[in-house]
Structures are given as C-alpha cells and as structure tokens.
Amino acid sequence: MTDQHVYILLGAFEGSRHIQRQLDSICAQTHTNWTLLVRDDGSRDHTIEIVNRVSNRDDRVEIVSDDAHVGCATNFSRLGIEACRRGAAYAMFSDQDDVWFPTKVEKTLERMLEAEERTGPAHPILVHTDLELIDPHGMRVHPSFMKFQRIGHMSKRPLKTLFVQNFVTGCTAMANRPLLELALPIPHQALMHDWWFALCAASTGTVTFLPEATVSYRRHGRNTVTVRGFWRTVNPLRTDWRRLWSEGASNHGRAVVQAGALLLRLSNAGISMGESTTMIRAFIAIHDVHSNVMVRLVRAIRLGLSSQTWPRKIMLYMRLLWWPQLADSTSASLAAKDVAPR
User: Fold this and answer.
1) What is the phi-psi region of residue 247: left when phi exceeds 0, alpha when psi lies from -120 to 50, beta otherwise?
2) In whole angstroms, what is the distance from residue 136 CA to residue 74 CA?
C-alpha cells in the first residue's frame, strides 16, 4: 500500500447533527497518512466545538480559521488553496454529513496512482467513485447513487455531457496537484466545486472512475444539492414541472457562464488552442441569442451535446429551441458573443 500523503478538505456549515460520524469515519481510514483541513463557514450551532474535540485527540485534524461566510464552492476553494500552499500532491473533498467507507482513501489513491502511471504525474487527473444513498438515520436507501439518479461516468469525450450535466459527486473525488493548480481558485461563475473540477480535468487531462461505492451519502432536507431520484423527478404525479423547467433553464444559463469562465482559465494557463477549447467555444456559441433556432440545434448536434437519459435530452433541446426567451439575463448571451465564431 502506498504511503502518499493526502489532504482531505471538509467544508462545514451547521453540521453538528452528523459531523461527528463523518469525522470518526475519516479517522478510521485504512490509509493513515492524511491531513484533514476543516473550514467552518460561520456555523451558529456546535459544529466547531465538535471538530475541536476531535482535533485535540488527533493532530491530523486541523481547523482553518476564517470567519467569513462564503458559501459552499468558495469554502472548498479556500481549503484547496491552503492545501496547495502546504504542498499537497493529492486532495479529496468531504461533506460534513456523510460516512466514509474505511478503504475510501486507500482505494481512491490507488486508482489515482494507476492513472498517473499511464499519463505521467504532470497530467491533471480527477478520480471519482459511486456512493450508496442513506437516509437521515443512516439506513440504506439505494446501494448506488449513480443508478438512483440515472447518471453514469462518461469515459469518451466527457465534455459534451459535462457542459450541461455533472456526473461527478464531490465527496467521492480526488484531484492531483496539476489539477489543483489549474482549477484553483474556483471562480464565482462555477455552479459547484465538483462540477468545476470535473470540467477542468475533462478539458485538460483525465476523469477516471472507480465503479464502486466508497461513501454513504446522506439524503436529508438540508442537502446543498437536492436528491430526488430520477424516477421521482420524471413522475408526472409527484413533480412540479413548472419549477423543474425553471430550475433547468436557470442551471443551463449558469452552465454557459461557467463554460466562459473555463475558457478564460485555460487561456490564462496558456491553453488557447486544441480540441477542448474548440469544444468550449462551440458550446458557448450555441447560446448566442441572436442566432437562428435551426443554427442552434445544428451546432448542438454537431458538437454532440447531450444529457444522460432521454427525458433530460428532450428537456435540453427544448431549452435550446426557446433559448432567447429563457435567457433571463445578458450574461450568457455576452459570454457567447465574446467567443462566438466571427
């Protein structure tokens, strides 16, 4: 077993109900060479007291002091920057309310090292896994979160899906140093930290999948990302379709702006040419509100833009049909205009 050091980044907020279980599961990892950095985002409950108690008995657990309330993605961004400052070669993301399997760090790191052997250590790599889904009391709801959500890992040209749909869950992910250096700091345009890291890895390196659950993902009413399940989402008797359409349109618009931020990040990193940047430009150009509807659809088809499952694909292309009406701000349009083919 490798003895590589791993940084674990835990963003906490109002987590006193479940965080003790999560801290215990991290302390019980079979891979013992790790440092856990915890940043509390301004909790008013007992979260920080619980972390302090664990830190007092295990010096691998450290609190990153910062009083500002910045939100989930920026919280992880600040943790990642701190890990890089300390020389992190590998970093994992942790939610506060899950339970890690004992071999999670060990198995994820093994898959990472295998990937680095194939591509070289300078290659940005993200490794992610499946999860099991549990309820607020820790009872199993489903053995595979990815099957529950009807999502799957895309090994070939993942960008064409990641533009509009994320299939990487942050609490399963590990990033190597080259990916951390590219992805950090996480821009404010990013929808979520895991989506941003997945886009950065897919556009410049590799997204690798370990097809097994390594964490119990707790579903409850305060999840940052709502977990409804695929079939419940598409059930006409249980879904508010107007709200679902509105959420989808909003996230789609934010995904276009996110792609613009990705293009800028690659340009700043000296990556202004290549297949990935061409694909990003093509994706943004699809959303030029001044383009003809048929032009938008043809561009999307040529790019291979696609969501997973037919209901999601249908919703995606319906949004493209009515894109000018759905763009409730000029940000997506301006992002498209800035990089649209001239």
Assistant:
1) alpha
2) 26
Cα 54 from Cα 45, distance rounded (Å): 16
pLDDT digits (tens, 9 = 90+) for 235-248: 555 567 688 888 89
Eight-state DSSP code of residue 120: -
Residue among 258, 303, 312, 308 nearest 279 (CA): 303
| Pairing, β 99-100 against β 174-176 | unpaired
Domains, the chain: 6-218 (3.90.550.10), 232-339 (no CATH)
CA distance 72 to 192: 8
DSSP structure class, residue 221: T
Instruction: Collect all residues with Cβ–Cβ distance below 8 Å to 320 and sequence separation of at least 6.
Output: 286, 293, 296, 297, 300
> Reduced to 3 states, what is the DSSP secondary structure of residue 56?
helix
Asked if 331 and 257 count as a contact pair (C-beta separation under 8 A), the reply is yes
**β pairing state of 125-134 and 140-142:** antiparallel
Within the chain, residue ranges assigned H as helices are 19-27, 47-57, 72-85, 104-119, 145-149, 159-162, 177-183, 193-204, 230-234, 241-268, 275-286, 293-303, 310-321, 323-326, 331-339
pLDDT tens digits, residue range 46-72?
999 999 999 999 999 999 987 778 999
CB 128 within 8 A of CB 173: yes
Q: Which of 148, 109, 119 is nearest to 131 (CA)?
A: 148
* Spatial distance between the Cα atoms of 68 and 72, rounded to a whole number of angstroms: 12
Residues near 203 by beta carbon (within 8 Å), at least 6 away in sequence: 159, 262, 266, 276, 277, 279, 280
Q: Which pLDDT does position 141 carry in this prediction? A: 95
Other C-beta atoms lying within 10 Å of the C-beta of residue 243: 9
